[in-house]
Write a structure and sequence with these properties.
heterodimer, A: 11 helices, B: mainly alpha, 2 strands
């Protein structure tokens, strides 16, 4: 019983760390650009397929090391183009928030069925990043889990560092606080919007590469991931990075324990109940700002 | 758009729809499309009233439609309630669910509403397929297969005879459309316009945003549930496939084509979208792919929907009609 709980706890911790990586990316986009990206889950799957194509059919040298190396420019360019081509033309309308939601929902449908058309409807499995187990006392841990945990944590620390120490990162923060003011002091707002989108796409792509090793690449699994990422962001408070960090770990644990105790089918219901109760008490989430 | 012009446009549309069975009464394929147009036109109108007029980012419209359908099916299959009553009860149940979702939800800021309503949509699938859904008779992942047809005054309205069913739907459609038009043009509708323009100013005039939003949420979910139930008794079987993103996107395309908040526009959107979706049906898996691409392209390039150019085209004609009165 005790060992089982430890197992469930680690699985919650690992899921939580990857969710945190993805939710931070999502909350960043909302906080800075106020755009609501409903295609987020499809980019998670893009990460999974990216890794699959490189590792299985192409058999790229260096394994996951080269996958990560190539993923950085790939997802940055995809995210940047997405914002420039699809989102920024909508900004001139009054009801652009609604239009962005609709457009990204359409995009998500297009991408999901695009994956099905290209790769077929069956799920794909990725090889583990590393094989083998570690034994600590009586608890057995997969090395893969430890590596995923470390990688997503270091991804987040890296992001934290970029946001607080580089000029671009500080410009992103400035735009989030006051877009008009940022423009007055000479920050290129449009570039920052696109860069933010690119960074968030990069984070969710990484999340996809990391988590698809454990959960398979499922062309229809994107809505599930998207809802999870959105629930975490809303639960933590939209635009609050710290809030989504806490929320990701809370929901990762909730998912693991509810799934273990009541069965996976109840996870979504439990998540939604938690979200509704939280929003009823705190309408802007755990750490949301006015 | 003025009330007169709105009613004239709608009258013209429904007159044309009403005489359609005279020409196509024998062709089941076209009759089926016509019935689906009537049903979707009302569901999409409700969504337009919520999104375009009340300004609530609700993404739960398909969920309410499915709740209505399942409620009526479960009531008539498991409890042997005649479909005429079960449809009305389904509408009431859906309205209540709408209030339940609306109570915590409508106090929130825009994007949160979208998220919570969409989460309700996503939660319905595991709920209906899981043990909880099976306990109330949703039939799990298999769905409900033997939903009885509507019987009224000894007449059976089923999918075998499409013309009578068409006129039943037509009758209900006109009533619901009238209710929606009256609502848009009543004190409520004006209150919504004021709330959308400036929520603070409207509040200072004593308009309670929450109260009106909740009321419109309840009314539109009632109508949506009613038509969901009608659909359930029309096709005779239900499954959780109705909750797929495919259906959601079709409803969204109607809105984008028709223009958000340009009320009768969405009805034209329904005609175009249902026909298009039926024509694309043989493409199978590629249909949602194309639908998704259509949404992206339409949102980018069709700014106010299709109704504004049409109105501009028809305005000389309408002016003549209005002046003659």
């Amino acid at each position: 019983m005790f060992l089982e709980i430890i197992d469930v706890f680690t699985s919650g911790l690992i899921n939580g760390s990857v969710y945190a990586l993805m939710a931070v990316g999502l909350t960043l986009v909302y906080g800075v650009t106020k755009a609501f990206n409903f295609a987020y889950g499809s980019f998670y799957n893009l990460g999974g397929y990216f890794a699959w194509v490189l590792l299985i059919p192409l058999g790229v040298i260096g394994g996951y090391f080269s996958v990560f190396f190539m993923a950085i420019p790939f997802f940055f360019i995809v995210g940047y183009l997405l914002e420039k081509v699809l989102i920024s033309p909508l900004r001139k309308y009054d009801d652009w928030e609604m239009k962005v939601m609709m457009l990204t929902l359409g995009l998500s449908l297009f991408m999901d069925f695009g994956y099905q058309a290209i790769f077929g409807p069956r799920i794909k499995s990725l090889p583990g990043i590393i094989e083998g187990t570690v034994q600590v006392g009586e608890v057995v841990l997969f090395q893969q889990d430890i590596v995923i945990f470390i990688l997503s944590l270091s991804g987040m620390l890296c992001f934290w560092w970029i946001l607080n120490n580089t000029r671009t990162g500080m410009a992103v923060q400035a735009v989030a606080q006051n877009p008009a003011g940022a423009q007055i002091v000479g920050i290129p707002k449009d570039f920052i919007f696109a860069a933010t989108f690119a960074i968030s796409t990069m984070m969710v792509g990484f999340g996809g590469i990391l988590l698809c090793q454990k959960n398979f690449v499922d062309p229809m699994g994107s809505t599930d991931i998207m809802i999870k990422a959105w629930v975490i962001t809303a639960f933590g408070g939209m635009g609050s990075i710290r809030g989504s960090l806490y929320a990701a770990f809370i929901l990762g644990m909730l998912e693991a324990f509810v799934g273990w105790y009541f069965g996976m089918i109840h996870v979504q219901i439990a998540t939604l109940t938690l979200l509704l109760v939280t929003l009823a008490i705190r309408p802007r989430g755990l750490m949301g700002r006015e | 758009m003025s009330l007169k012009r709105m009613i004239l446009t709608l009258c013209g549309f429904y007159c044309v729809m009403g005489i359609m069975p005279l020409f196509f009464g024998g062709t089941d394929y076209i009759m089926n499309i016509l019935i689906m147009i009537l049903i979707w036109a009302v569901v999409a109108s409700c969504w337009d009233v919520i999104m375009g007029f009340a300004g609530i980012f609700s993404f739960g419209q398909v969920a309410f439609y499915v709740i209505g359908a399942y409620a009526s099916a479960i009531l008539s299959v498991s409890m042997d309630i005649p479909p005429v009553f079960s449809i009305i009860m389904a509408g009431v149940i859906t309205g209540l669910v709408g209030v339940l979702v609306g109570l915590p939800c409508l106090r929130l800021a825009g994007p949160y509403v979208a998220l919570v309503t969409f989460a309700v949509h996503m939660t319905l699938v595991p709920f209906l397929r899981g043990p909880l859904g099976r306990a109330i008779g949703s039939g799990g992942s298999q769905g409900i297969l033997t939903i009885p047809p509507i019987k009224l005054f000894g007449l059976a309205f089923s999918s075998d005879q499409l013309v009578p069913f068409f006129y039943l739907t037509f009758f209900l459609t006109i009533i619901c459309t009238l209710v929606l038009v009256l609502m848009i043009k009543s004190y409520w509708g004006t209150a919504f316009l004021a709330l959308k323009d400036s929520e603070n100013f409207a509040a200072s005039l004593g308009i309670s945003a929450f109260k009106y939003k909740l009321m419109v949420f309840a009314l539109t979910s009632f109508i949506t549930g009613l038509f969901g139930a009608l659909y359930a008794h029309y096709v005779g079987m239900l499954s959780t496939k109705m909750l797929s993103m495919d259906v959601f996107t079709i409803l969204m395309i109607m809105m984008v084509i028709g223009g958000i908040g340009k009320y009768p526009g969405v009805v034209v959107g329904a005609v175009i979208t249902v026909t298009l979706s039926q024509l694309l049906a043989p493409l199978g898996m590629y249909r949602p792919l194309i639908m998704g691409a259509i949404v992206v392209v339409l949102v980018l390039f069709l700014r106010d929907g299709i109704i504004s150019p049409i109105i501009r085209l028809l305005s000389p004609l309408q002016r003549v009609v209005v002046e003659e009165e």
